[in-house]
Write a structure and sequence with these properties.
The structure holds 3 protein chains of 3 kinds. By secondary structure, chain A is mainly α. Chain A contains 21 helices and 2 strands. In chain A, strands 1-2 form a two-stranded antiparallel sheet. Chain A is globular, with a radius of gyration of 23 Å. Chain B has 3 helices and no strands. Chain B is elongated, with a radius of gyration of 17 Å. In chain B, helix 1 packs antiparallel against helix 2 and helix 2 runs antiparallel to helix 3. By secondary structure, chain B is mainly α. The model of chain B has no long low-confidence stretch (mean pLDDT about 90). Chain C has a two-stranded antiparallel sheet. In chain C, about 60% of the residues are buried. The chains are: A mainly alpha, B mainly alpha, C mainly alpha.
Chain lengths: ~525, ~100, ~650
């Protein structure tokens, strides 16, 4: 079982999808129920990963699976190569965790052709899980593209008014990036073969060891980085995101925010940065600048939005800016902050999209001006909304704070000092746009008669939100659950990239300062 | 003595006539016949050169061309009949539905 | 030994959760309010136990670590608590005053729709505030720091159906966040600065022990402390971030008393006290703190002179008094600052609760008479001393205390601060003058308030004037206790010059002593000078009271004449120096305009313009090229022939 746990987990949704195809299309309840069960089982299959202590002790890849797949006479070889480490572990868990929630959110929201919807959701899950566990670049690319297609249809068929434009924009933006990446992947392989390195497929762990010349790394990093930057999305490649989010159905938005955007950040951590470590320092100032600009820019634009969903979408740009800034800090705090912020963003922003979905289902509008005073009519909703709002703002005690704080602190210690200072102003703006929105939607008196008859959340809707709220506080209060299993992998990654992570073995501040100073010197001064 | 040059010259003239016909005529049947002229001019080249070089390959090819031409005639005429049923015309200028 | 410390914030947390989740079902106000108050009282008992234990203990610093919070690389953060004399004083104030205000709220909030909600928030606030003062590292403090901000947001916005309340709540949180920005930057810099010396820590005890690694007066320590001071400014409503506090009066009055007078707003002072060693190392920062404190004390007092809303006067008074505390911190009078924090907690809580009692009465009367007049406007009051005797007496006592009249608590603490601001080697006589003048203004506007509210002719609408009752016991008991404390609270810190032993200062010695000694901060001066200054400040206060008496009791027509004569100045003060408008102009509106521009101008036009532009160009090329596919057989044939000719030509002749 444990031998091919990852395969089982990855392809179980696909299997489920095949069964979904045989369910009569008018049996809506069975379709949704069955999909829910499939996603829940997938979650259960993935659970042993979360409880496995091996991640806390070793930073390498675990649950490896390796089979030769395509082999064209030594000219081209790719393998079925899976594995998971502390970095991908929580993203995998986030994916399997968020899927049942996404399915539950469709209960009332998706009415036309729910069969197709469910089939695509399951296909999408396979794509996402596969991308997170692939250790073969080519295999990764296949899964990466596999995610694109279901999402394209989810937006294009079940989306809002402007769905075609949004879907095509989403598709083309991503495709442009991924084609560049494909070229880069082929080049790396070609280079490896040419240089006589003993290459067995596109295994990234072998690619890590390649000693690519700087100029090659430069262009390759550009290609990978560009592709992932679109997915993150980083300023100024973000404009597909508000459209895609606004037009996508709730489940689509949730998955898009929670998982698909993480593909970009994960791509940086797993591929772009460790594959091309020599080129990385050249790009860090640029990327850090773009991250900071993204934070401020996303916040300012979010502030002026009139559509709640668009506001949340722009806030994603700001949140992902924190993730990227933390990751580029190239030290433990920053990396941990960035990683945990990925999870946080999945939880908080996912929850926000669900919340927007709830009111959209009731009122069929998302314009802020249409609302006001909802707290009177929907007290439970108001409470949940408030908690999620503050989690998104990054209030200490909730998940958002842990991520933002560590990312900023890491950036500050990691030589991105001024970037961190400017980015910290983002915490002010976050409060401005979220609270202003909350005030206009929930506070005040009910002025719009259409809001008079609003019903509070149903039991199903509360059940959808509860797991997310649990994680809001869990990560906020005891993030060590997650850090314990992330740390070894991050240490290994940083060492590999040539930045020794500063670790204090014994925590005795009074101990001889001079010795400490020498030990920590590399972490203290950074790139600028 | 009629040398291979004469055959080739005749073939070239026939081919040009056929080409001009295809380019200038509108009646589909005529165009079709022009194409046949072109094909046969090529056949003539094949045979002439075959004789000249002393290799039978060219003559074999001619049989292939004739077979293909026969098949083409069958398909082409059938298309034209189908078209005529719709348009009551075999003027190629009326055959302009295949565009943007 | 102090392992039950965690119970102190835990009790209110439990109360908050129970009331928050089940309050709606419980419905019974007595149960809800009783539970919340009981939880506060339990917490008070535990605080007392620890306080007295610490009194008898020779070791004055104790840390209790419950568990690890974050551990990433060289950053180790614990869920840990710190009990030392400073935090002991703070927990006593927070739980003690907190319990009284909870009790008061049962009566004051009677009949409110969101009764349970209110108590849940109030308990949560107490929890956060206790985390703030008990945290043994900057991060746990920051949880409390932002937590009180959250509760402040929730409680200011308690009447969320009112737009002004929502605006005020948002403003409070956002302005606090500006301060938090400073706090975070300071924390990052400190962590990095100490880290580069080999000590990676955010723990206060370790920071204090290792502060010597940093260079005294150096750039780093100055930057760190200035950043932290920005944080303190946000939380404690100092210039330039004070504007949220007066607006925060939109919240129910007990909230104003607890959060916006006694506890939360003093967090900044506490934080500076907690990091006194760093501040002592940065004279530039100390000077900044002192100047900002003095300026705030003066500036807020001027605004207080002309306000007519009873709570707004008290709000500006709070800002002004907080300015005194910062002045104290800035001149090195750390223990005097904390002392004033304590006495201020007593008399200002009493004043706010008293004003609440008045508002409660007025509201009751207006409600009875079906009127919609403003129950907080002092111009509608007057002569209430006969209607509400207990409220009146406690209010008067606290007013005397805040005015700095000898023998009352405020006198000791304020005088100590003024003396240090003159005599300390980090002080300056100008600071003393500003402080003394502000003290005079304080006496004036506080007595103006008392005279307008409790004395003179009753100006309430005739239909309502006979229906103003004295408040119920749950309201008056806290008033009486706080009134008593406002009188005697100062006696634990009688300075040596007045024959006391200043036990308060001795108590805080383990916290502040080292910094003061190491940097030779002390107040020097002849006893005669000290007596003289004391006399002058008392005289100024009495003059203030006398002027108020002349204007509002003896010649009630004077104020109108006065405002007519100095109309410009009056308008300026009455409109709070137009600072809110200035901030709107400088920050709020530009942000909105930039946001709109970035969205509609940059995002939609430039970025999407490029993206859509590429699409349009592609489409345009396609549109042009499609005409080559005419559908005419001839065109295709010609194209083919031309193609063949060109290719063959190329190979034959090329």
């Amino acid at each position: 079982m444990a031998d091919n746990l990852l395969s089982l987990m990855t392809f179980f949704p696909l299997l489920g999808m095949l069964f979904v195809l045989f369910i009569p299309r008018d049996n809506d309840g069975l379709l949704k129920g069955f999909t829910l069960v499939v996603t829940l089982i997938t979650f259960v299959i993935s659970l042993p990963l979360a409880f496995d202590n091996v991640f806390a002790t070793s930073g390498g890849m675990h649950y490896r699976e390796f089979h030769e797949w395509i082999n064209i006479g030594g000219f081209f070889q790719m393998n079925y190569n899976l594995g998971v480490d502390g970095i991908s572990l929580w993203l995998v868990m986030l994916t399997t965790f968020i899927m049942p929630i996404a399915v539950l959110s469709t209960w009332k929201a998706v009415e036309k052709n729910s069969k197709g919807f469910m089939a695509l959701l399951l296909l999408l899950e396979t794509g996402m899980l596969g991308a997170f566990v692939s250790l073969d670049l080519f295999l990764f690319y296949i899964f990466w593209e596999l995610m694109l297609i279901p999402m394209y249809f989810l937006i294009g068929i079940w989306g809002g008014k402007n769905r075609i434009y949004a879907a095509v924009k989403f598709f083309i933006y991503t495709a442009v990036g991924s084609l560049l990446m494909l070229v880069a992947i082929i080049f790396v392989y070609y280079y490896a073969v040419q240089s006589g390195a003993l290459i067995n497929g596109f295994g990234i762990q072998e690619f890590y060891k390649l000693n690519l010349p700087y100029h090659a790394q430069y262009w390759l990093f550009l290609a990978f980085g560009f592709s992932f930057a679109i997915k993150v999305p980083m300023f100024p490649l973000h404009t597909w995101l508000p459209d895609a989010h606004t037009e996508a159905p709730t489940a689509g938005s949730v998955i898009l925010a929670a998982v698909l955007l993480k593909m970009g950040t994960y791509g940086y951590v797993r591929f772009a940065m460790p594959l091309f470590p020599d080129a990385l320092p050249t790009f860090i100032p640029l990327l850090a600048t773009l991250s900071v600009v993204g934070i401020i820019y996303g916040s300012l634009v979010a502030m002026m939005q009139e559509d709640v969903k668009k506001l949340v979408a722009y806030s994603s740009v700001a949140h992902l800016g924190f993730v990227m800034l933390g990751v580029f800090a190239m030290n433990m705090q920053g990396m941990a902050g960035g990683m945990i912020q990925m999870i946080n963003h999945g939880v908080s922003t996912g929850a926000l999209f669900l919340i927007v979905g709830f009111i959209y289902e009731r009122r069929h509008t998302r314009m802020i001006t249409e609302f006001g005073g909802l707290a009177h009519k929907m007290p439970v909703f108001a409470t949940i909304f408030l908690i999620v709002t503050f989690s998104s703002i990054g209030l200490p005690g909730t998940n958002g704070f842990v991520g933002e704080f560590l990312a900023l602190m890491g950036a500050f210690e990691g030589g991105l000092r001024w970037y961190a200072v400017v980015a910290t102003t983002g915490v002010i703006f976050a409060a401005v746009y979220m609270l202003w929105m909350y005030q206009r939607v929930m506070m005040g008196t009910v002025t719009n008669p259409a809001n008079e008859s609003l019903k509070d959340l149903s039991a199903r809707e509360v059940v959808v939100m509860l797991p997310l709220l649990v994680f809001v506080f869990w990560i906020g209060v005891y993030p060590n659950t997650f850090f314990d299993k992330m740390n070894p992998a991050m240490e290994q990654l940083l060492t590999q990239m040539g930045h020794k992570p500063a670790i204090v073995e014994v925590h005795h501040p009074a101990a001889i300062p001079a010795a400490h100073a020498v030990e920590h010197a590399p972490a203290a001064h950074g790139h600028n | 003595m009629i040398s291979v040059h004469h055959y080739l010259l005749l073939s070239a003239i026939l081919f040009s006539i056929g080409t001009l016909g295809v380019l200038t005529r509108r009646n589909a049947i005529v165009i079709f016949m022009c194409i046949e002229v072109m094909l046969n001019s090529v056949n003539l080249t094949f045979i002439a050169l075959s004789k000249h070089v002393g290799n039978m390959d060219g003559q074999v090819f001619v049989f292939f061309v004739m077979t293909v031409a026969a098949a083409e005639a069958a398909v082409g005429l059938a298309l034209m009949i189908a078209f005529f049923k719709n348009k009551e015309s075999i003027d190629v200028d009326d055959f302009n539905m295949l565009k943007w | 030994m102090y392992s039950n410390l965690w119970l102190i914030p835990f009790f209110p947390l439990v109360g908050s959760i129970i009331n928050g989740l089940l309050g709606k079902k419980i419905k019974n106000e007595k149960v809800i309010g009783g539970l919340a108050t009981l939880m506060m009282f339990c917490s008070f008992l535990v605080a007392c136990q620890n306080f007295f234990r610490l009194m008898g203990d020779s070791v004055k610093t104790h840390q209790v670590v419950i568990g690890s919070w974050m551990s990433v690389g060289n950053l180790q953060i614990d869920w840990g608590f710190l009990l030392d004399p400073l935090s002991a004083v703070m927990i006593m104030i927070v739980t003690g005053v907190g319990t009284l205000i909870h009790l008061y709220s049962i009566g004051y909030m009677h009949g409110e729709v969101g009764f349970y909600r209110f108590f849940s928030y109030l308990n949560l606030f107490a929890c956060a505030m206790l985390m703030l003062v008990l945290g043994n590292n900057a991060l746990v403090m920051f949880i409390g720091w932002e937590g009180v901000g959250l509760c402040s947001y929730l409680l200011i916005g308690y009447y969320f159906e009112k737009k002004s309340a929502g605006d005020a709540a948002k403003k409070a949180f956002v302005v606090n966040r500006v301060g938090d920005f400073g706090f975070l930057c300071g924390l990052f810099t400190l962590f990095w600065a100490l880290g580069s010396k080999g000590v990676w820590t955010v723990n206060f005890v370790e920071i204090t022990e290792n502060a010597h690694l940093l260079q005294t007066g150096g750039l780093l320590v100055t930057v760190v402390t200035l950043c932290f001071f920005l944080g303190a400014c946000g939380k404690s409503a100092q210039i330039p971030l004070y504007t949220w506090l007066p607006d925060a009066m939109e919240g129910p009055t007990p909230v104003s008393a607890l959060i916006h007078a006694a506890t939360m707003v003093t967090a900044g002072v506490y934080m500076i006290g907690r990091m006194n060693i760093l501040f002592a190392m940065a004279p530039t920062t100390m000077m900044t703190v002192a100047i900002v404190g003095a300026a705030t004390a003066f500036f807020a007092a001027t605004i207080g002179l002309a306000q007519n809303d009873i709570k707004r006067v008290l709000a500006y008074s709070t800002v002004s008094q907080l300015g005194y505390m910062f002045l104290a911190m800035g001149v090195g009078a750390f223990s005097a600052g904390i002392f004033h924090l304590m006495t201020h907690a007593f008399f200002k809580a009493c004043l706010f609760l008293g004003s609440g009692s008045v508002i409660h009465g007025m509201h009751h009367a207006y409600h009875h008479a079906h009127l919609h007049d403003d129950p907080q406007d002092m111009r509608n009051m007057g002569g209430l001393r006969k209607k509400m005797p207990i409220t009146f007496i406690t209010f008067l006592v606290s007013t005397i205390a805040i005015s700095g009249i000898p023998l009352f608590s405020g006198f000791f603490s304020k005088d100590e601060i003024l003396w240090w601001s003159f005599g300390s080697n980090r002080g300056h006589w100008l600071l003393w003058i500003i402080g003394a003048v502000a003290a005079g203004m304080t006496a004036f506007y506080m007595f103006r308030l008392v005279f307008m509210t409790f004395f003179g002719e009753q100006k309430t609408d005739a239909r309502a004037k006979d229906h103003i009752p004295e408040s119920p016991l749950t309201i008056t008991i806290p008033l009486m206790i706080l009134g008593l404390l406002a009188v005697i609270g100062g006696y634990i810190g009688i300075p040596a010059i007045l024959g006391g032993s200043n036990r308060f200062e001795h108590w805080l010695e383990p916290v502040f002593g080292e910094a003061l000694e190491m940097h030779h901060i002390a107040a020097h001066g002849a006893h005669a000078t000290e007596y003289a200054l004391m006399g002058i400040s008392v005289a100024i206060a009495i003059i203030g009271i006398f002027v108020a008496w002349t204007m509002y009791i003896k010649n009630p027509e004077l104020p109108a004449k006065f405002t007519a004569k100095f109309a410009g100045a009056y308008r300026l003060i009455f409109n709070k120096w137009f600072i809110d408008e200035l901030y709107d102009f400088l920050f709020v509106n530009p942000c909105k305009r930039i946001g709109t521009f970035l969205w509609r101008g940059f995002d939609v036009k430039v970025v999407d313009g490029v993206v859509n532009g590429v699409a349009w160009v592609t489409k345009g090329i396609g549109a042009g090229l499609r005409y080559t596919q005419s559908g005419y057989l001839h065109n295709y044939a010609v194209a083919m022939v031309v193609g063949v000719v060109v290719i063959v030509g190329y190979y034959v002749f090329g």
